Amino acid sequence: MILDGAKAQAAIQAALKSRIAGMMQKPTLAIIQVGRREESNAYIARKKKFGESIGASVLHEQFEENVSTEVLLSKIARLNADASVHGIIVQLPLPPALDKTRIQNAILPRKDVDGLGEASAHIPATARGIAELLAFYGILVRGKKVAVLGRSALVGAPTAELLQKRGAKVTVCHRDTPNTKEITRASDVIVVAIGNPHLIDASYFRDDRTQVVVDVGVTAVRKEGFVRLEEEIGKVMLKGDVAFESVKDKVSAISPVPGGVGPMTVAALFENLLDSIE
C-alpha cells in the first residue's frame, strides 16, 4: 500500500474548510522568507495555495539575503503584537549568518504554528503530519515497536516524542547506533529522517511484508550527483532516504517521496493555525 499524502491531505483540507466557515474571524498565517531560493518559493506557493483553498489568509513577508537577525526580530515582534495574525512561520533554511534559534524562539508560543520554537504551544508540523498520515490509513502505533531513524530537532526528536505519547514503543537510531538494521527489522513501523538519499535499502526490513515505512527525507539530486537544496529545484529530482523500488515489495505500506509526508506537513501547519484561535 502506498501512503498517499495528497489523498490524506484532501480529507484534512475539507475538515479545515468546514471549521473556518464557522469562525467569526479569518485565520491568518504570516510567512517570513529570507532570500529568493527557488525551493523556498515553491514550498511557500504550496502553503499559500492550501491556505486559500480552505479560506485562510496568508501574508508573505520577504527579506533580502543580507538582512540582520535584529531586523527579523523586530518584524516578528510586530507580528506577535498584531491580533489579526494568528500564526507565524520562518521559512527554512536561513542564511548561516542569522541566529536561527533566537529567531524561532522570538515567535509567541501560541503563534509558533510550525512548532519549532523551544516553548511552542503546538506539535511540530512534520511530526503531526506523520502521525496523521498513519492514522488516515488506519495504522495504529499504540503498543507497536517504532524505530525513528534520525534525531534532528526538526523531525526525528519530535516525531519520536509524539509517537511515544500515543503509546508506541519507540527506539531512536542515529549515526552512532551500532545495530540499526537489527532494530529496524524488529520494528513494526519505521520512520526515516536522516537526509541521506536511498541509504535505507531492502536489507533493513523483514521479508514478511508486515512493516510500515514513512520516508521523511528529501534530497535534491542531479544525474551527475547530489546538489544542495539551495539550487534550483526545478532542475533536479527529489529522492527520499528509502530506496523505494527495492523496499516497496518487502513492506505492507510505504510513503513516497515526493507526495508522502510533504503534503501532510502543510496540512498539519494549518491545523495548528486553527488550533491557535479556537
TrEMBL record:
Domain Tetrahydrofolate dehydrogenase/cyclohydrolase NAD(P)-binding: 124-277
EC number: 1.5.1.5, 3.5.4.9
A biological-process GO annotation: methionine biosynthetic process
Residues annotated to bind NADP(+): G150, R151, S152, V218
Gene3D superfamilies: Leucine Dehydrogenase, chain A, domain 1, NAD(P)-binding Rossmann-like Domain
Entry keyword set: Amino-acid biosynthesis, Histidine biosynthesis, Hydrolase, Methionine biosynthesis, Multifunctional enzyme, NADP, One-carbon metabolism, Oxidoreductase, Purine biosynthesis
All copies of domain Tetrahydrofolate dehydrogenase/cyclohydrolase catalytic, residue ranges: 3-114
An annotated Gene Ontology molecular function: methylenetetrahydrofolate dehydrogenase (NADP+) activity
CDD domains: NAD_bind_m-THF_DH_Cyclohyd (cd01080)
Family matches, as Pfam families: THF_DHG_CYH, THF_DHG_CYH_C
GO cellular component, one term: cytosol
PANTHER family: C-1-TETRAHYDROFOLATE SYNTHASE, CYTOPLASMIC, C-1-TETRAHYDROFOLATE SYNTHASE, CYTOPLASMIC-RELATED
Task of the protein: Catalyzes the oxidation of 5,10-methylenetetrahydrofolate to 5,10-methenyltetrahydrofolate and then the hydrolysis of 5,10-methenyltetrahydrofolate to 10-formyltetrahydrofolate.
Family: Belongs to the tetrahydrofolate dehydrogenase/cyclohydrolase family.
Assembly and binders: Homodimer.
Protein name: Bifunctional protein FolD
Taxonomic source organism: Candidatus Taylorbacteria bacterium RIFCSPHIGHO2_01_FULL_51_15
Name of the gene: folD
